[in-house]
Amino acid sequence: MRNKAVYLALGVLPDGSCDILGLWIETTEGAKFWMKVFNDLKTRGVEDILIAVTDGLKGMPEALEAVFPATTLQTCIVHLIRNSLGYAGGKDRGALAAALRPIYTAASAEAALTAFEDGPRNQKLPTVAAAWHRAWERVIPFFAFPRPCAGGSTPPAIESVNSRLREILKTRSHFFSDEAASKLIWLALRNITAKWGDPARDWKEAMNQFAILYEERFTVGLA
Q: What is the mean pLDDT of residues 140-157?
């Protein structure tokens, strides 16, 4: 018996609708695995990815650069915050969360850097400061995005999907094969996505700004 992880790709289309693009079950992650994932997506019709929001998965930047070189890679701020809070004791988490907030709510990348220098780095939190420093080039891209979409976090839809799948998988101690697991997960995903409604409330505002930022790469998906 081996433990394996389930990886999901959720896409937000130019019209604001969401779709599950695929799932993959694997024991380890790395550049070769992610290369397979991205080539799989391309084979099945994904022509372009404007922004990829991930939680710092090993080997993904290299694979993404190889298959979709024009994509902006954005670290998920929510995951980075959660990981950072894991370095703090229970009584210190509130103070750490308060120190991090000025970074990701800053009005610009420059202001975020100042907040970082005044916050985790200045407060002598070496593990937290190092984590943000390593991810910094992938922390700041979202400051250029439309404000309704800024925040650098995975869409609420994927967080909801992950939570629901965890509940479902808890009822099964193991699967006899990857195929059996995939069938159950796909059935669950079908039921989950059937309840998805309209795009986010501010999507039209964001859509117009994305059209300016990405021009034809974005508008071609609206044709």
A: 68
